[in-house]
Design a protein that fits this description.
By secondary structure, this protein is α+β, with helices and mostly antiparallel strands. It contains ten helices and 21 strands. The termini are far apart.
Length: about 350
């Protein structure tokens, strides 16, 4: 038996009725990913809800009754599951509900495999169905959106996007890093919202690094043209920029300042969807923050002098973290200690 909290019960009901907030969708996404049985239950309830007749759609959603109907189906018939159909004692409001997660294993596994949970965002006033894909540390994922836009998600990143684009702008929300190859559509601009910035394009290729837990965002334009809006902490516009091919904008979110630079000959030729982290004249503090996201570790810089060391180079996610540290410490001036999942770095 699986205990379902009141918050999860409310999120399930809102999800089935198409009124889930973004927070509820994320809660269900996390819950479904914890256990395949959770995903099975969610998948089964979703299909059972869709099969309701007109009369039953008038009343409120009864998740417990739906669970019992789900268990009564022939594909779930077994002594153990039939026993689960015995009437349960009436419970007071404010109870916790218990479920027996069953069936739909293959379909639920496919749902979780792509890391997507569809729902509706009642909290933002949007009517379209949204998907969320999360990529773990040390990995990447490639998806194709409804309009044909290709997105390569980098490590420890999350993208929220509509299942289908409507008549207005094509909008997505990113926390992390992703490479976009946007399908051209002059009547429907493509907008990538991320922490303290928005990127507006018609059809182009570009890379966005915008982890909410890092101090700097970087937008790299490879082809076409993009408009970049930089925002303050309250979401008000600080500056609008237009980037040209092979131009890069570095936005310091703490200071509210930015700088533009151009890609060198090597950076212009390499594929930006290859899972490689490239850095030019970046401090060890910035690189350490990115390594934490890429590898899912904790890195502590013990003294300020170590934070200010600057590097230019690149590394692939296929490299082990100790190999990356070996490159950064090529001159032997760093002392690196490991304690489980935590690394401490100081100058010798």
């Amino acid at each position: 038996m699986k205990e379902i909290s009141e918050a999860l019960e409310s999120a399930l009901i809102a999800y089935l009725e198409g009124e889930a907030t973004l927070q509820q969708i994320e809660l269900l996404h996390e819950w479904a990913g914890l256990d395949p049985e959770n995903a099975e239950l969610l998948y089964g309830l979703t299909h059972l809800y869709a099969e309701r007749d007109a009369a039953s759609k008038i009343g409120a959603v009864d998740v417990e009754a739906m669970r019992r109907r789900l268990l009564a189906r022939p594909e779930f018939a077994s002594d153990e599951r039939i026993a689960a159909l015995r009437p349960a004692p009436r419970r007071k409001l404010g109870r916790k509900i218990w479920f027996r997660a069953v069936g739909y294993a293959a379909s639920a596994a496919a749902l979780i495999a792509v890391g997507i949970l569809a729902g509706r965002s009642g909290g933002t006033g949007l009517s379209d169905s949204f998907n969320t894909i999360c990529v773990d540390a040390g990995s990447k994922s490639r998806i194709v959106l409804a309009d044909g836009t290709q997105v390569t998600m980098k490590a420890s990143s999350k993208l929220r996007y509509p299942a289908s684009f409507g008549s207005g702008p094509r909008e997505v929300w990113l926390d992390g890093e992703a490479y976009f190859d946007v399908e051209h559509d002059a009547e429907h601009p493509f907008i990538v919202h991320s922490c303290r910035q928005s990127v507006r394009v018609l059809g182009t290729t570009f890379n966005v690094q915008a982890y909410s837990n890092e101090s700097e965002n970087t937008v790299t334009l490879l082809s076409g043209a993009v408009g970049l809006d930089l925002l303050d902490r309250e979401g008000e516009l600080l500056r609008s920029l237009e980037l040209h091919p092979y131009e890069q904008c570095h936005f310091d979110k703490r200071a509210g300042s930015y700088r533009l630079s151009e890609l060198d000959a090597y950076e212009r030729q390499v594929p930006w969807d290859d899972g490689v982290y490239r850095f030019r004249d970046q401090s060890l503090a910035q690189i350490a923050a990115r390594l934490q996201n890429y590898y899912g570790v904790r890195i502590l810089l013990i003294d300020e002098a170590a934070e200010k060391i600057r590097y230019t180079g690149s590394f692939s996610l296929t490299e082990r973290l100790d190999e990356v540290f070996g490159v950064l410490n090529h001159d032997g001036r760093l002392h690196i200690e490991r304690d489980g999942n935590t690394y401490r770095i100081r100058l010798r």
